[in-house]
Design brief:
This protein is mainly α. The chain contains 56 helices and 17 strands. α11 runs parallel beside α16, α34 packs parallel to α36 and α47 crosses α54. It is elongated, with a radius of gyration of 49 Å.
Length: 1526
């Protein structure tokens, strides 16, 4: 920089301007003259000050003669302190001529102060010359005078306006000479412990601070010449053994850099904070160009700071050589050089802070104060040096983290090594690394090349300080490279990769300077991790960085540097995910380092500080971040070879492929998870475990390889691999290994991690083991474990590991039993959230592995846990239950039942569930077992768990009967206040048998189901029709042989009756003849004649009829028997209720002293509002529904219009984006889709075919076809359904149009008047069309305002009848889930989340927000509750994940973790699982959320309350016999 300029160092050191003529006389003569003259001048000054008399030195000759005496007086021994003090006072008064002249100042000095001021400044230099042999008290007095001189000079420089360039140059030369006089000699102590140059220790910091301050002031007022700059730079080389030099150098650099950043990047760039003293260090009037010049020159003022780690360079100055020349000692062993390791650390730390400032990493003032603390605080900590020089001592392998060390692998080696360190390591080292590595980078930061051009050479050299290099990495010798120690800026332009000054083969690893080396490597890691998308870095920087990393990542006993390794791991979290060219060469060494920290066999961090535990956790977290970046590499690159960084023609090449490290990565992940103690670290590892299992399973499936599992030690497990029938499952239930597989005895090492089968088994066993052993009391970890197990349940592995599936189900059941059995004080919302999550996980396992329900033991375990959740206790305690609690505070009563006790029946048990949330979750599992296990997806597909048939659909198929609009043909009954049964008595069109038919539309808490039932008296058979039994069988043909006709007279009594003689009792009844009188005989005779006539008439008729009968045909049509007509109408509703036992008198009676309605209730179908409420009930689905909005951001885009316009054409997006979209779900037409569509106005209904407007779908789009107007991407399982919506510019324009038409109304909340649901409709409702959702009327009103007929519209706020239960208490939080695809990763900082909320409305927002909340507050709340998954495609084909969102008590869900790198094949699956889990966690956290079946149950109860027909028992039975209006 100053090669063409001459240095003034020799002139300054040889300058005689501070010599007086009295120095040529004997000391006694000069002392006497000085004593007399100085005393007189000082007294005259005092008199002049009191009497205002001018000085009697009136000529230039007089003044110069007096100054000769004063010059000699300043050089007197310290024993003449009073004379020296008076000389100083005289010059103080005279120097006032440069500012405000005093009366006592001689007239020549007043008239022309600059020449005299220059001479006085030269003379004052004598005061700073050390006086050997002086006592401590005298040295302190000298130091005090020096302080006053420096303060005076500061005042003159700051206030004077008459100083010329020569005076400024003289002032700066004086300061340089004073510093050189005090700081050049090495500090040395004599036998008394006092330093012969102790004045340097007293004035070191002060004189340096004045030098730098005056230099910067001179730059502002009179910029120093290049010769002075070169002199300053050359003289600083002699002062570098002083810690204060580095401290002051950093202060100035810190201040100048703060100003420079504002100049270069503006006021919005992250500010480099300054303390109060530093903020006044530089004049605010200094020009920008001057600041830039000063910054660059001061940065290189101490030349190469890496020289501080080389005692032979620091001790090679003339003063050191002169001191030891006569003694024949090595200058590098001087005791003052013992502080070089700490000085080197502070220099590297200062550079690191400057680099952080350029990268936009905010630095705390505390860190700055720790770095710039006074050097005296560490001066007394220096211990006696060991016999071996620092450069030759062997390493003790310290890995101190805040004074902590890593335990030695080989204790026998370390015992023979000298462990006494010259200087203790700085106590603030790792904490600063931690703070730096966790701060975000500035988006507008400079490129890596720019930073490396400035600091690269220093950092690369410092990163390999005192490192033994391999032959292939050694550069030229020391002599050949001595000229490289100039400055960082010029070094980097040579492109050399020579790395160290030392090439001695006998040099072992020296960790004396490892703290500074660690800072350098940490700064390098931060620079390279700041690599931007598409940014280029020079190959020479890549090569030097990778070689430095190679040596820093060494883990062998003879080359490990603990602090260096910790620094690398702290600061290189993003190293493998920022598209660095060739970074894969470091993968094997990074793996070794991670294994050292994360493995259970690694050296543990032995803590000696209370804060170290935190940093140990952070170190492991950084390692886990690196591990998450490595997981997908083996299966992605497979057989690709990893280049060897140490290969050379002389060394054999070691061939390592990515696939060869797969097993090592998997084992490391499992070991790290086994050893993890921190909750956050554990969740990150669980996410990584899910990633690697899913990736391996999908990779095997794509490769179409069926890998047979190895034989395990249990016979039952091997038997279950090939046979998946019910027989094999039954055999598994008797497998003894199922009982003996305690999670406390599971092996940690895997027998087969190369296959998805083996990894699945080990992962599941390990997670269940840790869940029961350590994680069961931590909410977030337990939730993450359940999310992992839920994800593993969906992993498709061939063959299925059925025994492990069965064990997992048992472990989940044991977890639920343990949590439910905890004492009452332990029961909290968090505990119940864990139980609810476990029930959700159990549901997924049962649905995905339905064959587990064929196993008797597994079925019993599951049903017992369900019973425990619903009732709070088990009917009978099994022999394997080990979680009973005998205390009275137990929340459950599990402990009261022994295995030998008889089981308690349902009616005898007292229901005491752990909580209603737990009861609801258990009921959901039970319903899932009954309805969906083995039957999912249903016949109508996974889009709907409901039957797609409703009243309108059923009426279409009724046999041609026109129904009146004034009444419904359905009868509605409510069973047990929870199930609405709509009965249709008319047979459907496809029923041909004239039998009693009833169609039941059942609406319960878990959905809507349609059943058609028929009353039959004969079995249903293919060959037998019901009509054949109901038709006329006809008369049988007459037979010719009728047999023998016997003429028998029929008697009423047998013949023997006549032979029995009559008794007196028989004769007690008189005969008729004996009772008739003469008067009555005539009437009797008349009666007898009538009888005789009638007998004759009847005989005639009988004979005539016999004759007619003989003449008539056979059979007689008039008398022939005919079958009755088949009845076509039945009261099937009554039959249905009767046959199912609902018509008992007990079921119709209302409970006493209770508001609960009877078990059987009839609803009032004449109230048309009933059907509206039934529609509303059908809009409450049986599953949780979530919406994920997907955006594509091109490089540099910030406006929402630009972002939404990207998806209009596939040419605007990357091909991987479209592939990712289709991996999320399958496309559905919202008009024909029965599930969730992303908006409440179009969900859960199917448009009639007649109403469909068949239009062509757009082709060649970039995803905008799925914007919710025509199609969405959909995915569903048994417990949740997700709609993936890609908003388009058309959606945005529609929202903006609604805003313009409504003034200042927000597009999120369209204002449309709507009648209350409680009011009676003024018009007759349409026919029972329950496909009209809760918001269909609003949709009809605003349909004309839509741009597209199918565009979703937001519903208005709806008032519910029950004001005590607001909608927010049922629906829960409205979690916004965004997935953002980034072409440039840095754009995630500028993503307009708030501006895009308008196109992500789902219609649920209005049920969550209250009527009093304002639009702005609502939008802020929604933006706060927005979770974003950023996806960035790396150049190697993998994808980087960045998670953004605020978490409260419940942390972010897995499997995706911030910073994770995932493969192409699992990207869609992982994003979908994470989105579902995030929304599920938010629902668990919310106190306003109720499960869907609970909301349906409450809605049913409201319907019963509003439409209950209260009738007595006779009225109810009478109503059953009445026909329904048709």
């Amino acid at each position: 920089m100053y090669a063409e300029w001459a240095s003034l160092q020799d002139d300054i050191q040889c300058d005689k301007a501070n010599q007086s003529v009295l120095h040529k006389f004997p000391p006694v003569v000069g002392r006497d003259v000085a004593f007399t003259v100085v005393k007189h001048i000082a007294s005259s000054i005092n008199l002049a000050a009191n009497n205002s008399e001018p000085s009697n030195l009136n000529t230039d000759k007089d003044v110069k003669w007096a100054m000769e005496v004063l010059c000699f007086g300043l050089s007197l021994p310290l024993s003449e302190h009073e004379t020296i003090k008076e000389c100083v006072l005289v010059y103080f008064e005279w120097l006032s001529a440069c500012t405000t002249p005093k009366v006592c100042v001689p007239r020549p000095v007043k008239e022309n102060p600059n020449p005299y001021a220059q001479d006085m400044i030269h003379h004052l230099l004598n005061l700073f010359v050390p006086r050997p042999g002086s006592g401590v008290d005298l040295v302190k007095r000298q130091a005090l005078l020096c302080h006053r001189v420096l303060r005076c000079i500061e005042e003159v420089a700051e206030k004077s306006n008459v100083l010329t360039r020569d005076t400024w140059e003289t002032l700066l030369r004086f300061l340089l000479a004073a510093n050189d006089s005090l700081l050049s000699p090495p500090t040395e102590k004599d036998d008394t412990g006092l330093s012969s140059y102790d004045i340097g220790d007293h004035l070191c910091e002060r004189v340096l601070s004045v030098l730098f301050e005056m230099w910067l002031l001179a730059c502002h007022k009179c910029f120093p010449s290049p010769s002075l700059w070169k002199t300053f730079r050359n003289m600083c080389v002699n002062w570098r053994h002083h810690e204060a030099l580095v401290t002051q150098w950093h202060k100035v650099n810190h201040n100048l850099t703060s100003r420079l950043l504002k100049i270069m990047y503006g006021a919005n760039y992250p500010e480099l904070q300054l303390n109060e003293t530093e903020s006044q260090f530089i004049s605010p009037d200094m020009t920008d160009d001057c600041v830039a010049q000063c910054w660059f020159r001061v940065l290189h003022i101490i030349q190469n700071p890496v020289d501080l780690c080389h005692p032979e360079i620091i001790g090679g100055t003339p003063k050191f050589l002169q001191l030891h020349s006569g003694e024949g000692l090595d200058p590098t062993q001087h005791e003052c050089l013992q502080k070089l390791p700490y000085i080197f650390y502070k220099a590297m730390r200062g550079i690191s802070i400057l680099i952080n400032a350029f990268l936009g990493i905010s630095q705390s003032l505390k860190a700055e104060e720790e770095l710039t603390q006074p050097p005296s605080s560490n001066r007394h900590s220096v211990t006696v040096p060991p016999v071996t020089p620092p450069g030759q001592r062997k390493s003790t392998r310290p890995m101190s983290v805040l004074a902590g060390t890593l335990s030695q692998k080989g204790s026998s080696k370390s015992s023979s090594v000298t462990t006494k360190s010259a200087v203790p390591p700085p106590t603030n080292f790792p904490g600063q690394l931690l703070l730096d590595s966790r701060q975000p980078l500035a988006p507008t930061r400079p490129r890596c090349n720019s930073v490396l051009h400035m600091y690269g050479a220093w950092l690369f050299d410092a990163a390999l300080a005192r490192v033994r290099l391999l032959p292939c990495h050694r550069g030229p010798t020391v002599n050949a490279r001595a000229d490289r120690r100039t400055n960082s800026f010029t070094d980097t332009r040579q492109g050399s990769i020579s790395l160290d000054y030392h090439s001695d083969l006998s040099l072992s690893v020296d960790n004396t300077y490892e703290t500074g080396r660690a800072e350098a490597l940490g700064a390098l890691c931060r620079i390279f991790c700041a690599h931007k998308t598409g940014e280029e870095i020079l190959p020479v920087y890549y090569s030097r960085f990778y070689i430095a990393m190679y040596y820093g990542l060494q883990t062998s006993d003879d080359s490990l540097s603990g602090q260096v390794l910790a620094s690398i791991l702290f600061n290189s979290c993003d190293l493998l995910r920022v598209d660095l060219d060739g970074v894969q060469v470091l993968v094997p060494y990074i793996l070794d380092a991670l294994q050292l920290i994360l493995s259970d066999q690694s050296p543990r961090l032995k803590l000696s500080d209370s804060n170290v535990d935190c940093h140990n956790v952070e170190l492991r977290r950084s390692c886990i971040q690196l591990l998450l970046s490595l997981l997908c590499l083996p299966l992605h690159f497979k057989d690709l070879e990893i280049n060897d960084i140490v290969s050379s023609p002389d060394t054999p090449v070691q061939s390592i492929t990515f696939l060869s490290v797969k097993k090592k990565i998997m084992e490391l992940l499992l070991k790290a998870l086994y050893n993890a103690k921190d909750s956050t670290n554990t969740q990150m590892l669980l996410g990584g475990l899910m990633l690697i299992v899913q990736d391996l399973a999908m990779c095997e499936a794509m490769d179409q390889t069926t890998l047979q599992p190895h034989q395990h030690d249990t016979s039952g497990e091997s038997d279950s691999h090939g046979d998946t029938s019910r027989t094999s499952m039954n055999s598994m239930s008797s497998d003894s290994s199922y009982h003996e597989s305690s999670y406390h005895r599971l092996p940690l090492t895997s027998q087969d991690l190369e296959t998805a089968y083996g990894l699945f088994g080990d992962a599941t066993a390990l997670v269940c083991h840790r869940l029961m052993a350590s994680w069961k009391t931590d909410l977030n970890t337990a939730l993450a474990a359940m999310e992992l197990l839920g994800g593993l349940a969906k992993v498709k592995i061939n063959p299925a590991n059925l025994l492990m599936c069965k064990r997992t189900v048992k472990w989940i059941c044991e977890f639920i039993v343990y949590q439910c059995s905890r004492p009452a004080p332990s029961h909290s919302r968090d505990l119940h959230s864990m139980i609810v999550a476990a029930f959700k996980c159990l549901t997924l396992w049962l649905v995905e592995h339905s064959r587990l329900m064929y196993d008797k033991e597994c079925l019993i375990n599951v049903l017992e846990v369900v019973e425990l959740g619903i009732s709070g206790s088990k009917s009978q305690k099994g022999t394997t239950d080990n979680h009973s609690v005998s205390s009275k505070d137990s929340k459950t009563v599990t402990s009261q039942n022994r295995a030998s006790d008889p089981p308690k029946f349902k009616g005898d048990k007292q229901l005491m569930p752990a909580s209603m949330r737990v009861k609801d979750a258990a009921e959901s599992v039970l319903t899932c077992i009954i309805q969906h296990v083995g039957a999912f997806p249903p016949p109508c597909g996974p889009e709907s768990l409901f039957s797609l048939l409703d009243e309108k659909s059923l009426l279409k198929y009724c046999k041609g009967v026109g129904f009146s609009e004034q009444a419904s043909p359905f009868r509605y009954f409510v069973l047990e206040n929870s199930i609405i049964v709509g009965l249709l008595e008319q047979p459907l069109g496809n029923v041909e048998d004239p039998l009693p038919n009833v169609t039941a539309l059942i609406r319960g808490p878990f959905g809507r189901h349609a059943w058609t039932m028929q009353l039959r008296h004969s079995p249903r058979n293919k060959n037998v029709n019901s009509k054949s039994h109901l038709g006329d069988p006809g008369r049988p043909l007459p037979m010719e042989n009728v047999g023998i006709h016997h003429n028998v007279k029929h008697r009423h009594f047998p013949e023997t009756v006549d032979k029995i003689p009559l008794t007196q009792a028989d004769k007690s009844i008189p005969t008729l003849e004996s009772l008739v009188t003469e008067k009555e005989r005539a009437n009797l005779t008349k009666l007898k004649s009538f009888i005789e006539k009638q007998v004759q008439f009847e005989n005639q008729v009988s004979s005539r009829s016999k004759q007619d009968l003989t003449k008539s045909k056979f059979p007689n049509p008039e008398t022939e028997c005919k079958p009755p007509k088949v009845t076509q109408e039945f009261q099937t509703a009554r039959l249905f209720l009767s046959h199912y036992g609902f018509l008992s008198l007990e079921s119709l009676k209302e409970p006493k002293n209770s508001s609960i309605p009877p078990a059987l209730v009839m609803l009032d179908t004449t109230n048309s509002a009933l059907f509206t409420d039934l529609e509303s009930l059908d809009t409450v689905t049986a599953r949780d529904n979530d919406t994920v909005h997907i955006f594509y951001v091109k490089s540099g885009q910030k406006l929402p219009q630009e972002i939404l316009d990207n998806v209009t054409s596939r040419n605007n997006v990357q091909p991987q984006f479209l592939e990712f979209l289709h991996s999320l779900g399958w496309p559905v037409d919202i008009r024909k889709h029965a599930g969730w569509t992303g908006h409440i106005s179009t969900s859960w209904k199917i448009t009639e075919p007649d109403d469909l407007d068949e239009g062509e779908f757009q082709l060649g789009t970039g995803g905008c076809i799925y914007d919710g107007r025509q199609q969405v991407l959909y995915w569903a399982d048994v417990s949740s359904e997700v709609a993936f919506v890609v908003p388009s510019i058309e959606t945005y324009n529609t929202k903006m149009l609604s805003v313009d038409s409504s003034g200042d109304r927000s597009p999120l909340f369209p204002h449309h008047p709507v009648d209350k649901m409680t009011s009676e409709p003024t018009h007759k409702p349409k026919s029972l069309s329950l496909e009209r959702t809760l918001t269909s009327e609003v949709g009809d009103r605003v349909r004309g305002d839509r741009e597209s007929p199918s565009s979703p519209q937001e519903p208005p706020p709806v008032r519910f009848r029950n004001q005590r239960r607001q909608p927010a208490h049922m629906i829960g939080p409205d979690t916004k889930m965004f997935v953002v695809w980034l072409e440039n990763f840095e754009d995630h900082d500028n993503f307009p989340t708030g501006e895009l909320l308008g196109v992500t409305s789902t219609g649920i927002e209005h049920f969550v927000t209250t009527s009093t909340s304002s639009t702005s507050s609502t939008q802020k709340l929604q933006e706060k509750d927005t979770f974003i998954i950023f996806i960035h495609a790396l150049t190697n084909g993998l994808f980087r994940i960045h998670m953004q969102g605020q978490t409260n008590r419940v942390s972010m869900a897995i499997p995706l973790v911030d910073g994770m790198v995932v493969s192409r094949r699992v990207l869609g699956t992982m994003v979908r699982q994470t989105s579902i889990n995030i929304c599920r966690r938010k629902r668990l956290e919310s106190e306003l959320y109720q499960p869907p079946h609970v909301r349906r149950k409450h809605r049913i109860q409201e319907i019963v309350k509003n439409y209950h027909l209260k009738m007595s028992e006779p009225e109810f039975y009478t109503a059953l016999f009445q026909d329904v209006p048709k």
